[in-house]
Amino acid sequence: MRLTRFTDYALRSLIFLGLRGEEGGRIREIAEHYGISEHHLTKVIQELARAGFVQTVRGRGGGLRLARPPEAIGVGAVVRALEEDLSLVECFAPGSRCVIRRSCGLKGVLGEALEAFLAVLDRYTLADLLGPEAQLRRALRLPEPLAP
Amino acid sequence: MRLTRFTDYALRSLIFLGLRGEEGGRIREIAEHYGISEHHLTKVIQELARAGFVQTVRGRGGGLRLARPPEAIGVGAVVRALEEDLSLVECFAPGSRCVIRRSCGLKGVLGEALEAFLAVLDRYTLADLLGPEAQLRRALRLPEPLAP
């Protein structure tokens, strides 16, 4: 049981942009700082923008920034929006061919477990993930923010 | 986020063998009744036997049966034993190359969500999944058990 790399990259991108604040960042920068594929990341960012988590700023000096403050971005909401397939087993999706799908108790049990999983994520926001901000900056080789 | 087909088939096999009781069954039968690959199922059954959920009976008239009563087979225990990879994101596994793995709060949050997921499964046993026994038998085209 894994989250897709798509969701993983989405959460990492939000952490990056959360650290950057108003300054924001560019797809290439995020890809470089994490050492991940820029091509793959482009689709992730498009989806984050479509779902209203990230704002794209056009023109020279344009780029990306969070569309809402970190405390208004729920981890559960991001996973629900980005994880394409929360069908734990095939009978969650339409078109299942499992012969016992109509009488099997497993779907209900797994559905309850999935709800518990997402309920935990709903208790956290991006702001919680940015807690150890100084260490995250060092790990990503981002400069300290200018003093206000 | 999906369970592997391996775990899915394992749970279905246990449901089949649970319905069969002492009579047990054979890999080919399970594969036929569900319309799934016998080859794939063979590995699943080996793993179920290795993990102590299924007993293989040798010789003519041999086959498979549950190694314990259905109420002693926890759904959570089966998923923990069969699901090879409960690494929700790459930093759960050794060898992660994510640069923020040491300071990122995401691993803790996802780990807590995974625990909640498994805790729900731990509340159910195979006996709970066998509840609607008559419907399951019909769906699998299994005959009613002989009256005691």
What can you see in these coordinates?
- Two copies of one chain form a homodimer.
- Chain A is mainly α and 148 residues long.
- Chain A has a domain at 5-84 and 126-140: Winged helix-like DNA-binding domain superfamily/Winged helix DNA-binding domain (Arc Repressor Mutant, subunit A, Orthogonal Bundle).
- Chain A is built from seven helices and two strands, in the order αααββαααα.
- Chain A has helices at residues 5-20, 27-34, 38-50, 75-82, 106-121, 126-129, 133-140, and strands at residues 54-57, 63-66.
- In chain A, strands 1-2 form a two-stranded antiparallel ribbon.
- In chain A, β1 (54-57) and β2 (63-66) form a beta hairpin.
- The longest helix of chain A is centred in the first third of the chain and has 16 residues, at 5-20.
- Chain A is elongated, with a radius of gyration of 18 Å.
